[in-house]
Amino acid sequence: MSDDQSPLRAQLNRIAAHEARVHIGPLTHLMRTLGRTAGFSALYRRIGPVIDPRIARIRDGRLMASLYGFPVLILGSTGARTGQPRSSALLYIRDGDDVVLIGTNFGQPRHPAWTANLIAQPEVVVDIGPERLLCRAELLDDDAWQALFPAFVAIYPGYANYLERRGGLTPRMFRLHPYL
Predict the structure, then answer these.
(1) What three-state secondary structure class fits 30?
(2) Under CATH, which number does the domain 7-179 receive?
């Protein structure tokens, strides 16, 4: 992407401006503390997928950014078995222009369904704040996983606890490459 004035570059710049508004919010410390516990994870894996997409869409994602203090996107994928549209609110990190996701499934010893969706159909849409990106998902290898996992733990320390509870099952990690 050599043209700094390209529509994709402009979109990525607007996303960066949105991400700059993510800050430690009133629930950040609570979520980071409770998220490490098995009980809260069990509860949140039931209610989070229901409430997070709704909260993430309020005020173009600004409410979630200021409330939770985590960078959250809405992943739009195609169901691997059903072919139906699916959406998931997920914490993410950026690596250059790419978005990186990890499928911890709240520490459960199985992969979340959205990861199978990305393997079956890697063309996805991603909503970050008011912007919608078209992306192609790439399942990352172990070296990339090892290099990027600490960045997830830095944002949300509960990921380290999730890893311990997964019984040796390494969470799938994906790099999403944006395109026009």
Answers:
(1) helix
(2) 2.30.110.10
Q: What percent of the chain lies above the pLDDT cut of 70? A: 96
- Within 13 Å of residue 76, how many CA atoms lie on the same side as its CB? 10
Domain ranges of the chain: 7-179
Residue 3 clears pLDDT 60, i.e. is over it = no
Range with lowest mean pLDDT among 42-46, 81-85, 142-146 = 42-46
Instruction: Read off the pTM.
Output: 0.86
Spatial CA neighbour of 55 closest among 40, 39, 77, 70: 70
Instruction: Name the packing angle between helices 38-57 and 158-165 (round to 10°).
Output: 130
pLDDT 10s digits, 134-144: 999 999 999 99
Here the contacts of 57-64 (C-beta below 8 Å, separation 24 or greater) are 57/127, 60/18, 60/129, 60/130, 61/18, 61/127, 61/128, 61/129, 61/130, 62/18, 62/21, 62/129, 64/89
